């Protein structure tokens, strides 16, 4: 499914309307990331905070005509987030709610943990964090150094120690999910719900060139005490709550992250259309090529979203789409500069911001090299039959 059905078209129209209200604040948030909290009342941010909550916990879904939306499927998210990222990627990433941590809680949490997490999100617009990356372990999260140590006294608290870096909304979040090691081996991982007010929890901002609204930060965990009921998935078998389970969850998230590259590329393309009223023939051709590249990547992403909605282990399509989308965002934003001459970055601050934002897509949810490894492992598993068939020698 790559063309939108009427239901998703309706969602797209609503998202586009909300996104238009975000756009005027893009440069303000770029200059001052804290401005995100001042614009959190905008429907695109406030409403999204109360979405991405499973139906059993969400009494206030988005209702458009006779259709109800929870923004829980990858197919809905790619439609919605393209519009948000096209308006402003930093603001979209800086919106309240549980866009990433909520997916983990939904997949691994017990009934009580879900009530705790989603109940707090519904009470009022609240930011959350998803703390996986570390200063020395970004791509190789498997070797993370953060530890969750079991209590010596069975009734006592567990303890978290370590440093997480490049965590979105770190300084403004009230709670979130921290990923840690509980011991060696493939089952020695745990994800836990952590309250930012717990003693030993501290954050410092990380300055970034782009997506400043995302409020990236470092989280230090110094003997942070954790009640046993805050460890996600304790009710599940170890093989259902460890790294393999996380990877399935990340597959669900990947199309929505990847589509942000399409949103940024589209913003640059639309900027050229709006600001250059007359174009030479060669420029028109270049612009048409940009438009085609955006449309092709969008189709790829929608197909990848449908694939993970159908089977959450089918993340290799989304990996291919994520790598394509990161490259698209960089190429299209840089190509857009060429339409405005040598002073483009100074004279067109919005375009300059888009170029800086585009660079971040490469790093979110795994770099292109890591996505290529995902595609390759999919190939080895025979997950791309038509392509594989063309590579194999035919019998004659
Ligand atoms: C806007 C933004 C938001 C983010 N939000 C979050 C968040 O909310 N939570 C969170 O936990 N993290 C977040 N991150 C961090 C992100 O997940 C990491 O930046 C990413 O995983 C890469 O890790 P790294 O920066 O340490 O780079 P590294 O892993 O050090 O990679 C550096 C380079 O080495 C290459 N490389 C690494 N390993 C291999 C390999 N095995 N084979 C080939 N090449 C390799 C990479 O492709 C890359 O080019 C965010 C990042 C950005 C930019």
From TrEMBL:
Domain Acyl-CoA oxidase/dehydrogenase middle, residue spans: 130-224
Keywords: FAD, Flavoprotein, Oxidoreductase
Enzyme class: oxidoreductase
Cofactor: FAD
EC number: 1.-.-.-
GO MF annotation: an example: oxidoreductase activity
The keyword RNA-binding belongs to this UniProt entry's keyword annotation: no
Occurrences of domain Acyl-CoA dehydrogenase/oxidase C-terminal (ranges): 241-374
InterPro entries linked: Acyl-CoA_dehydrogenase (IPR050741), Acyl-CoA_Oxase/DH_mid-dom (IPR006091), Acyl-CoA_Oxase/DH_mid-dom_sf (IPR046373), AcylCo_DH-like_C (IPR036250), AcylCo_DH/oxidase_C (IPR009075), AcylCoA_DH/ox_N_sf (IPR037069), AcylCoA_DH/oxidase_NM_dom_sf (IPR009100)
Any single Pfam family the record assigns to this protein: Acyl-CoA_dh_M
Family recorded in the similarity comment: Belongs to the acyl-CoA dehydrogenase family.
Protein name: Acyl-CoA dehydrogenase family protein
């Amino acid at each position: 499914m790559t063309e939108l059905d009427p239901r998703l078209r309706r969602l797209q129209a609503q998202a586009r309307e909300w996104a238009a209200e975000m756009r005027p604040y893009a440069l303000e948030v770029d200059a001052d990331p804290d401005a995100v909290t001042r614009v959190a009342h905008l429907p695109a941010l406030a409403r999204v905070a109360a979405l991405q909550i499973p139906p059993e916990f969400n009494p206030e879904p988005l209702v458009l005509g006779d259709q109800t939306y929870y923004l829980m499927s990858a197919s809905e998210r790619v439609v919605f987030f393209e519009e948000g990222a096209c308006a402003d990627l930093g603001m979209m990433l800086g919106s309240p709610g549980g866009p990433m941590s909520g997916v983990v809680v939904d997949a691994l949490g017990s009934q009580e943990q879900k009530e705790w997490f989603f109940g707090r999100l519904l009470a009022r617009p609240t930011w959350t964090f998803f703390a996986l990356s570390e200063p020395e372990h970004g791509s190789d999260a498997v070797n993370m150094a953060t530890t969750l140590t079991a209590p010596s006294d069975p009734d006592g608290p567990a303890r978290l120690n370590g440093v997480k870096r490049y965590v979105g909304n770190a300084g403004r979040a009230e709670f979130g999910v921290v990923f840690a090691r509980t011991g060696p081996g493939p089952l020695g991982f745990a994800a836990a719900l952590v309250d930012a007010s717990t003693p030993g929890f501290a954050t410092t901002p990380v300055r970034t060139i782009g997506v400043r609204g995302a409020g990236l930060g470092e989280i230090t965990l110094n003997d942070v005490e954790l009640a046993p009921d805050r460890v996600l998935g304790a009710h599940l078998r170890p093989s259902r709550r460890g790294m393999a389970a996380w990877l399935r969850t990340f597959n669900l998230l990947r199309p929505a992250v990847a589509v942000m590259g399409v949103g940024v590329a589209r913003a640059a393309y639309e900027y050229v259309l709006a600001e250059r009223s007359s174009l030479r023939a060669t420029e028109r051709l270049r612009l048409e090529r940009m438009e085609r590249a955006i449309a092709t990547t969008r189709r790829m992403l929608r197909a990848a979203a449908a694939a993970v909605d159908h089977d959450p282990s089918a993340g290799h399509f989304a990996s291919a789409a994520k790598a394509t989308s990161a490259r698209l965002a960089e190429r299209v934003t840089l190509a857009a500069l060429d339409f405005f001459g040598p002073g483009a970055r100074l004279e067109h601050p919005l375009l300059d911001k888009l170029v800086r934002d585009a660079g971040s897509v490469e790093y979110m949810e795994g770099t292109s090299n890591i996505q290529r490894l995902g595609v390759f492992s999919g190939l080895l598993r025979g997950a791309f039959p038509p392509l594989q068939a063309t590579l194999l020698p035919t019998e004659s």
